[in-house]
């Protein structure tokens, strides 16, 4: 589905764009700043992205640029949800860049 955002077929609020990446606001933000960074080239998840080191580096560089553009000087998180246990809903790899307020503990305690 994120390929359709790259193609301009689905609207998105673009924060930053490079030749190889696109950063746009999450439609259902979980923090004051919540931006998704994707590679233009389709990779299903972070395991596939790791087989394309140039694309992986570009995604991280764009995540860092987003943090700068969003003025996340007090810190932020970069999250790649992966697979069923990771809660991945969209199978086009995306880094969540979240910040703008204290984010609390990274995970809730195991039960
Ligand atoms: P994940 O669970 O890691 O796969 O995250 C998917 C994210 O994509 C969720 O945070 C959704 O809110 C977000 N999302 C789904 N559709 C869109 C869309 N059309 N534009 C922006 N964000 C979206």
UniProtKB/TrEMBL annotation:
GO molecular function: catalytic activity
Residue stretches making up the HIT domain: 1-108
Residue span of motif Histidine triad motif: 92-96
Active-site residues annotated for this sequence: 94 (tele-amp-histidine intermediate)
Protein name: Histidine triad (HIT) family protein
